Amino acid sequence: MTYDGKSLGFAFGAGLCSALAIILQFKALAGWKDQSAWIVLIGCLNGVIVVLYTLFSGERFSVTKWMGVIFAIVAIVLLNWPSKESR
To answer: How far is CA 10 from the centre of its chain?
Structure first.
């Protein structure tokens, strides 16, 4: 199996970005402990980037893919909904 330099460069860049994101997320969690749910939510938005790229690149979504996107959005809202204990 062989890889060209461009693919290895993209993989290396993605790894560096992921490592930087994890470091920044830990720094944010240490600084804003009361906002940890939102920090984790923002840190997990990489799936949104993938979906947006897919939409703008011209790929068509099937019904099941759209259902997955809708369920993910609903899950994000429900997981961050304030409970009675947090008020």
So the answer is: 18
CA 83 to chain centre: 24
Q: Is 2 helix (H, G, I), strand (E, B) or coil?
A: coil
Cβ contacts of residue 81 below 8 Å, gap of 6+? none
Q: What is the pLDDT of residues 19-72, one digit of tens each?
A: 888 888 888 888 887 877 777 777 777 777 777 777 788 888 889 988 888 888
Alpha helices in 4-87 (DSSP H): 5-31, 36-43, 46-56, 63-79
Say if CB 39 and CB 29 are below 8 A apart: yes
Q: pTM, whole model, 2 decimals? A: 0.47
Q: Which residues have a Cβ under 8 Å from the Cβ of 51 and sit 6 or more positions away?
A: 69
